[in-house]
Amino acid sequence: MFKASITEKDKNIPRLFFVASGLVGILLYLVAGTANVVLDKPVHLLVIPRDCTLYQLRELLSKEKCIKNETTFLWTASILKYRPQDTPGLYRLTAGMNNWKMIRMLRGGLQYPTRITFSNTISKEELVEKVVNRIGLEKEALLSLLNDPEYLAAYGFSPENILTMFIPNTYEVYWTITAKQFFLKMHAAYQRFWNTQRLKQAESMGLSPIDVSILASIVQSETNNQQEAAIIAGVYQNRLKRNMRIESCPALIYLLKQEQGNLKRVLRKDTFTSSPYNCYRKQGLPPGPITFPSSIMIDAVLNYAQHDYLFFCAKEDFSGLHYFSRDYKEHLKKANKYKKALNAQKVMR
């Protein structure tokens, strides 16, 4: 039987392979496994824009002083077949992170959520501006959606009252969220807020959730005092029940600001303005909110104080508190005190 002889050279092949494998392993570790993220703080939030190429990302990381070795970053990205344009977004880098861990996170699209907070907003344009400043959402896309009557009607809203769907709060979203995804997220939050109890309260008032939010926006513009908010809401509810005009100064000011800019005083001639926001002439509530009412103010309306007041006016000490009256003569006496105080302070038009 023939028996192959094993030469010394043949015996060395496994050893050479083992050594080569070890060297490759060491090289890979040096390229991908050693720390490459260097920061002057524990965490850095990195925004990768849409259509960003690998070399543009390298420039971005270098500009923001996030990595110490650009070459090893590119090698690791090549090994892992990473394309930044496939997974744009906001990512959280931590000091000491290696190339392997960082690129696997980026390639997997493991984004870090962005927190969005909006309040004290009086228009769709302001809302959109606040939202798009925090994420990669296109301004025109969201604004177009909020002005689309057909799309909004499917959810029970109109371009005039759509702001009532946005309950002021802090929301977590991903940088790559689309306009429709953002809309649906806000609608889901709206539905959670309007639970069975709140819906029953609104129904007992003869108002829809949209009406309650519109009324709450007016009450919020009248006062920051939670106790008075419920009383003022009660005044407006009493007027609505009696089919009286609500005669809201904040709603009229909201209208006049759109036309004349900032103003501090409403004059009698302003009450003749023809507009659905002029509640001195129009019956019922205006077609939309005049600001973003907080959940506290919405609940103040839903839990309005039951009384027989039909009028109220600001106190002359400018404390932000109000006088409440049952009849018009009594109201005029108190209102004149406030007018005199305005004149004394030379608050004019």
Explain this structure.
Helix content is 48%, strand content 8%. Strand 5 and strand 6 form a beta hairpin. The protein starts with 7 loop residues before the first helix and ends in a 5-residue tail after the last helix. The longest helix has 26 residues. About 3% of the residues have low confidence. By secondary structure, the protein is mainly alpha-helical. The strands form 3 sheets. Strands 1-2 form a two-stranded antiparallel ribbon. It has 14 helices and 6 strands.
How is this structure best summarized?
With 349 residues, the chain is mostly helical.
Core attributes:
349 residues, two-stranded antiparallel sheet, 8% strand
Structural class by sheet pairing and helices? mainly alpha
Q: Approximately how much helix is present in the residues? A: 40-55%
Q: Which regions have little confidence, pLDDT < 50, spanning 5+ residues? A: 16-25
Radius of gyration: 32 Å
Task: Measure the end-to-end span.
Answer: 118 Å
For the largest sheet, list the strands in their spatial order. 1-2
Order of helices and strands: HEHHEHEHHHEHHHHHHEEH
Assess the beta-strand content as a share of residues: 5-15%
Largest sheet: 2 strands, antiparallel
Mean pLDDT value: 87
**What is the tally of helical segments?**
14
Count of DSSP strands: 6
| Quaternary organization | single chain
What is the general shape?
Answer: elongated
List the helices and strands and how they pair.
Elements: H1 8-33, E1 43-48, H2 54-63, H3 70-79, E2 89-94, H4 99-107, E3 114-117, H5 124-132, H6 139-146, H7 149-153, E4 170-173, H8 179-193, H9 196-205, H10 209-222, H11 226-241, H12 249-260, H13 295-302, E5 311-314, E6 322-325, H14 328-344
Antiparallel strand pairs: 1-2, 3-4, 5-6
Helix pairs in contact: 2-3, 5-6, 10-11, 10-13, 11-13
